[in-house]
Design goal:
Length: 236
């Protein structure tokens, strides 16, 4: 058993009427897998693996009764399913090292939470995103996310190939990963569409889907949008 404490993220949504909603996330410090929260209900029908199952899902019903991501977002979806995405609120994220806060929409706050849960729910497609979840950055811009994604990927390639002569890196594998992430986003949106009466959860997933498409486009163009930041600053 690990003696290290879990990595924890505590989210609070504070609404103008004085009401608030809270959600806590904890990651196993060794595996970076989500530590499941105690469920207040039995798994719902839409959580079953075969319910609106993602295209090309690598999991088999004979081994997995439930979609691991759907199972982990069930309580979150139930909590926010009647909240409109455009509602204003202050979202606060507390970590051991620092606290982030932003006056924003429910959708942006939920997108941050969904991103962590999806990356750490032991879905094989999302496994490569666990290091990013470990260094979670709430409310990240598209540019920040692009830098973090590319940096994490290149660091992983360095650790994988550092002892090989003439090590070379490209983004082919990362592009392939993100094309599969888009399928997962589409599958989760189909699940949530069947249970949410309002739009907060749906729009949060749509935001993540759009972001994954943007990242694929940026990677395909060799991150040209960021090149000017590094030009002439890392001379040999």
């Amino acid at each position: 058993m690990s003696l290290r404490s879990p990595f924890q993220f505590h989210y609070q949504f504070c609404f103008p009427n004085g009401h608030s909603k809270e959600y806590a996330i904890a990651l196993n410090p060794e595996t970076l897998s989500l530590i499941p929260m105690a469920s207040v209900s039995e798994p719902l029908e839409w959580v079953r693996l075969t319910y609106q199952q993602c295209r090309e899902c690598p999991l088999k019903p004979e081994h997995y009764a439930y979609c691991p991501i759907a199972l982990n977002i069930m309580e979150l979806v139930e909590t926010f399913k009647n909240v409109f995405s455009y509602h204003d609120c202050v979202v606060i994220c507390k970590m051991a090292e620092r606290t982030y806060s932003k006056k924003t929409s429910v959708m942006e706050g939920l997108s941050a939470i969904f991103g962590v849960i999806m990356a750490t729910s032991d879905c094989p497609v999302m496994e490569f995103l666990k290091p990013m979840a470990r260094f979670h950055l709430p409310f990240a811009t598209i540019e920040e996310t692009t830098v973090r994604t590319a940096s994490m990927y290149l660091l992983a390639q360095y650790f994988k190939h550092k002892d090989q002569a003439g090590m070379k890196c490209n983004f082919n594998s990362l592009e392939n990963h993100y094309s599969k992430v888009q399928l997962v986003n589409e599958g989760l949106l189909a699940r949530i569409n069947s249970v949410s009466s309002e739009d907060a959860d749906k729009n949060a997933i749509v935001t993540l889907h759009s972001l994954s498409q943007f990242l694929s486009m940026e990677i395909d163009y060799s991150l040209c949008g960021l090149e000017h930041i590094f030009t002439d600053r890392y001379a040999d």
